[in-house]
Every structure is written in C-alpha cells, then in structure tokens.
Amino acid sequence: MRAVALLSSGIDSPVAIYLMLKKGLEVIPIHFKQNENKYKKVQKIWKRLKELYPDKLKDLIVVDVYEYQAPIFEKLIELKKEKWICVFCKFTMYKKATEIAKENDAWAIITGDSLGQVASQTLDNLVIISLATDLPILRPLIGFDKEEVVKIAKEIGTFEISIEPEEGCPFVPKHPIIRGSLGEFKKVHEAVFGTPC
C-alpha cells in the first residue's frame, strides 16, 4: 500500500512519515519548496529516513510554492482576506498532494498535523482543510504532544536536522484565522478560484 506525505523541514512531518513507514506503508514525500535553506534541510531529512527504510521511502517530489501557491496568497491579500492564508496554504497542499497521489497510485495523504498546535491545526480548520481531498488523511501525530514528537525525532535522528536555523514562512499573516467558519471559507474559496468548494 502506498501513500503520499507532506514533508517540511520541521520536527513533526518526518516523525509522521517514520511512523507510517514503520507500519509498512510505501511513502512518496512531497516538499513545498520556499527557499534553498529549508530545501537542503528536507533533503537531509529524506536521506536519514531513507537510511531507515530504503525500500519503502520513495523519491522526493518538489513543488515550487512561488509558482503554485503564491498567486493564491496574493489574491487573498487583494480581497483583504489574508487571515485565511494559512488555511489556504494547507488546503492547496492537500489538493496538490491528491493529484500527485492519483498519478502515483497512492491511496492516502500523510501529514504531521497535531491537534490545536498552530493556526491551521485547530479542529475547525482541519475540517475545512480536509475538504481539499477525497483521499483518507492519515495523521499519526494527532493526539501527541510536542515532547512525545521530539522524543521520537531524537530517536530516529531527524531532530538535529529539523532544529537547524531557517527563515520563517514569508506568507504567515499577522492574525491568522484560528477557528474558520465553513460558510465563510466557501465564500472566500469561490472569490479566489471562481468555483464553489
């Protein structure tokens, strides 16, 4: 069985991927590239996970954020709806991951979401983001706290890579929406994409 996975340079997603590899899934990692520094970290993380599961972890697929997502963020700013950027960021990641999954005969999307941790990971926002895909979303860290995730990251050798210095996300709004309303999201989605959600 094969799944795609969102892989960032942070602590959580490598652990989520590791846990699913451990379960016997073949995993195709997808990285949404913002800059070279983060990308280099992701390559190091990928290599480390590949050492642990050489047959199960597939080649890294890279999506250019500036090409794929930045125009959507610009449209949100133009509409004065920049508070929705984090939600649309994850929503569009799931959409792209679904396309890649279907092209590669994968049956699910793995993410490092942990409930309530940041703006895009509150239950309200997870419900909205999940509308982007018709595939099952595997969230192995959903009930973990940060200490538990860090402990596994240290055990598997990804923690030291993830905490190397990097630039913050340039798109994060000053006041990201924490508990998005589904009704408002649908209106904003239609304004951005010209189609209903």
Instruction: Count the beta strands.
Output: 5
Query: What's the total helix number?
Result: 9
Distance between the termini: 29 Å
Query: If strands are numbered along the chain, what order do they take across the biggest sheet?
Result: 3-2-1-4-5
Q: Catalogue the unreliable spans.
A: none
Q: Approximately what portion of the residues adopt beta-strand conformation?
A: 5-15%
What is the helix content? 40-55%
- What is the radius of gyration computed over CA atoms, rounded to a whole number of angstroms? 16 Å
Which class do the helix and strand fractions yield? alpha/beta
Largest sheet: 5 strands, parallel
In short:
By secondary structure, the chain is an alpha/beta fold.
SSE diagram, text form:
Blueprint: E1 2-6, H1 12-22, E2 26-33, H2 36-52, E3 61-64, H3 65-68, H4 70-78, H5 85-103, E4 109-110, H6 123-129, E5 137-138, H7 146-156, H8 159-162, H9 182-193
Parallel strand pairs: 1-2, 1-4, 2-3, 4-5
Helix pairs in contact: 1-7
